Amino acid sequence: MFRHLQIVGNEMEFPESQLTLLSENMVDFESLKENGYDVKPYFSAQGWNKYFDMLNGPIYPELLKKFWMKARVFSKYEAKQEELAAIERDPSLKGKT
Q1: Does the residue 66 lie in any domain?
Q2: Is residue 64 part of a domain?
Q3: Which residue has the higher pLDDT, 83 or 7?
Q4: HEC states along the chain?
Q5: Which of 3, 42, 69, 83 is 20 to 30 A distant from 53 in Cα terms?
Q6: Tens digits of per-residue pLDDT, 3-44?
């Protein structure tokens, strides 16, 4: 499964220590309540508390920093070229995304 996996260097041209992680809740019930939308009781009544606890649960800052140091953004043109090359190697991929 991972035989074609390649370890790559960092894409970012600055040290990882300069990355700042801004963590926030996916659903901020307190902010909604402060702005006149107290919707948490509706979700609680339906038993959704554990789901929102999971969404707003732990994050792994060091793992996220390592991910973003290696992330590379592709333009639509580059993505299309990669898609065409893959189809050329394996025509059965045509029409699949």
Answers
A1: yes
A2: yes
A3: 83
A4: CCCCCCCCCCCCCCCHHHCCCCCCCCCCHHHHHHCCCCCHHHHHHCCCHHHHHHHCCCCCHHHHHHHHHHCCCCCHHHHHHHHHHHHHHCHHHCCCC
A5: 69
A6: 777 777 888 888 999 989 888 878 899 999 999 999 999 999
